[in-house]
Amino acid sequence: MLQLIECVPNFSEGRNQGTIQRLVQAIREVPGVQVLDVHTDGDHHRSVITFAGEPPACGEAAFRSAQVAQALIDLNQHQGVHPRMGAVDVIPFVPLEGVTMADGAALARQLGERIGRELNIPVFLYEAAATRPERIDLAQVRKGQFEGLRELIGTDPAHVPDFGPNCIHPTAGAVAIGARKPLIACNVTLGTANVEVAKHIARAVRHSSGGLRYCRALGLEIKSKGVVQVSMNLTDFRHTPLHRALALIEHEAQRYGVPVLGTQIVGLVPQAALWDAAAHYLKLEQFSMDQVLENRLRYLIRGPQ
Question: Is 207 a catalytic residue?
Fold first, then answer.
């Protein structure tokens, strides 16, 4: 039976193309792994690389990319608008075919043990791999970022890593590794330079402050463009669909007389999420995916799957 898992590591480098290419190459060199997408952002100073393959190959590719990040990225020199605690900041595994969430969590633990042992980077397990309830939420794991965790790891019992040394790596920081469902990451750009507006809207949208159940959101300033963003992660798009989150942001933005300029998808997005958004805004009735031309052609070419 085919076993297929997706891995979406986030790296604290979005400007040095040489370093980014080294990260991508380290992944591509592993047999059985396919790089699906590379997303970089200079303002966020972050790169998201999406790849997929069988679990052992993806685990090896994730480790090799972490090695490169440790060697080339120094968080003491890193300044970006996106929160971060590590050179490789987060490594999630997403089960796709023939792989359970428990399998993904086991792979996260195996990788975490190896990174802690061989790279001397403290590892925190999160989401489905978490060993403590308070570590399920990535935002809680990363709270304080590199600078804050530098003081907490090794002094605060609540910040003892799951693997690796009980002290932060001096340049590579710490890493969160876990297993999760497919996630939609998107940045909604607002037509204002006032970051307080974005922060107010983010508070209204995110679950932790009373907003949508499966939404995390931050308000960020994009100085290079003179705008601000509401940066969102939708952790379960079936229950908190993309169109609902965008509609709430637009509604809140109207309170401040601020237009929504556009939406940027970070990395890959499930087709079903775009389908749901199209069906909602087009008010489609009695329509099925079998009416999509490309789906019918795929059926003719490949037959029933």
Answer: no
